[in-house]
Amino acid sequence: MGAGPGRGRDYSVAGKVAEYFGLRRPILGVLTDGAMRDLVAESGLGLMADPDNVDGVAERIAGIADARGPERLIAPNDAFLRSFDRRTTARRMAAILRRAGAEGPRP
Q1: Less Cβ around it within 10 Å: N or C end of the chain?
Q2: In the chain, where the domains are located
Q3: What's the predicted TM-score (pTM) here?
């Protein structure tokens, strides 16, 4: 997995992005450098544009409109997207809680 939360890029990432990943639909990523951009790009769902490049954003939107279905423009990274499945995240959280419970309170 690329850079993301906890890897020195950003403090947090919008939770809504996991919902978009679950839908496996194209995401117009008009994003600055950071964890959110990394995640959307790694998902294979991102149609990326630099927010400081107005003409580039307009070209990306025109390209999506011309594609007659932006699904044709993406290549979902299934292994990466599975890591956002609610069952996967629930298993991870359960493992973290079991470890925390086994360690007990800090002295």
Answers
A1: C
A2: 16-103
A3: 0.72
